[in-house]
Specification:
Elements: H1 7-16, E1 20-24, H2 28-41, E2 46-49, H3 51-57, H4 59-73, E3 78-84, H5 87-96, E4 100-103, H6 110-126, E5 130-135, H7 147-153, H8 157-167, E6 171-174, H9 193-202, E7 208-210, H10 218-226, H11 239-246, E8 250-255, H12 257-273, H13 280-302
Bound molecules: glyceraldehyde-3-phosphate (G3H), 1,3-dihydroxyacetonephosphate and zinc ion.
1,3-dihydroxyacetonephosphate binds next to strand 3, strand 8 and helix 12.
Length: 309
């Protein structure tokens, strides 16, 4: 069992309309909960590390945790850098043994995004590592859903084709209406599936990536709030919309917020019900179990990638 790239898993997913979960990891319990779910579901797995995760846990710990999980659970894992901001962090992760990196040049003008992405692609490919890039800007939490603003930010299909051809990037994150965090829509959820289908038609062999894809599972929000949390108005991407996206070339679905909510809800519940308890294992154990159950649900019922290994 080993660290692997996403090449083969994306090829199969693209041909069969399912997607692979890319789950953000920050500590041991999160890694273990996710890996246990993927193992029991016989599902391909991407574990991803953000710059924030690297700062929190420190890079060596995260790489070693994932290596330990591979040994212990006997699974293959793609280890991915999430939202690499510049060439240097991508290079560092390639050198550290990551099998996939994201260069997020979405904040730059088109030509600059191409130049930066190409620089990362050249280095990563020389080292057997695959690259994800992003074109179009994801909506912010405060995003005002007006058509003009939407058109200005969402990925332009013709640009996506040119971008992929000129950079040689392996997968592309697209902006079609999702956003990061727990507050994705202020009204009715809307994703631009027509745009997604156009992009997929123009670059049918390029795996597409959906960021900001947490469902913000109401059960966990409610549990947080029942046990002292204050998370009003949270709203995520409905599961049916994730399933629909998988039919239009989306092969990688990024999930972080649902992990945070599952974990926090369980810890809140445990501590409120056991106010005398102060052994971290007592509440981190149930939190790990909650992550395993939530990830199992995603893999089995939403991403449809159980038994695809
Ligand atoms: O895309 C953002 C991910 O949820 C990572 O979040 O930067 O707080 O680790 P973070
Ligand atoms: P969520 O905040 O919807 O979980 O998105 C996570 C993500 O896109 C990580 O890159
Ligand atoms: Zn993201």
């Amino acid at each position: 069992m080993a660290l692997i790239t996403t090449e083969e898993m994306f090829k199969k997913a693209l041909a069969s309309d399912y997607a692979i979960g890319a789950f953000n990891v920050n500590n041991m319990e999160i890694v273990q909960g996710i890996v246990e779910a993927a193992k029991s579901e016989k599902a391909p797995l991407i574990l991803q590390v953000s710059a924030g995760a690297r700062n929190y846990a420190r890079p060596a710990y995260l790489v070693k945790l994932v290596e330990a999980a591979i040994l212990d659970a006997e699974v293959d894992v793609a280890l991915h850098l999430d939202h690499g901001a510049d060439f240097e962090i991508c290079k560092k992760c390639v050198d550290d043994g990551f099998t996939s990196v994201m260069i997020d040049g979405s904040k730059y003008p088109f030509e600059e995004n191409i130049a930066l992405t190409k620089q990362v692609v050249d280095y990563a490919h020389d080292h057997g590592v695959v690259v994800e890039a992003e074109l179009g800007k994801l909506a912010g939490v405060e995003y005002d859903v007006k058509v003009d603003a939407r058109n200005a930010s969402f990925t332009v299909p013709s640009e996506a084709k040119e971008f992929v051809e000129r950079t040689g990037v392996d997968s592309l994150a697209v902006a079609i209406g999702t956003s990061h965090g727990a507050y994705k829509f202020s009204g009715t959820p809307y994703l631009d599936f027509k745009r997604l289908a156009e992009i997929h038609d123009l670059i049918p062999d390029t795996p597409l990536v959906l960021h900001g894809a947490s469902t913000v599972i109401p059960e966990f929000v409610d549990k947080c709030n029942k046990y002292g949390g204050k998370i009003p108005g949270a709203q995520g991407v409905p599961e049916d919309m994730i399933k629909e996206a998988c039919k239009h070339g989306v092969c990688k679905v990024n999930i972080d917020t649902d992990l945070r909510l599952a974990m926090t809800a369980e810890i809140r519940k445990y501590l409120v019900e056991h106010p005398e308890e102060f052994d971290p294992r007592k509440y981190l154990g149930p939190a790990r179990d909650a992550i395993r159950e939530m990830v199992t649900h995603k893999i089995r019922d939403v991403l449809n990638c159980s038994n695809t290994k």
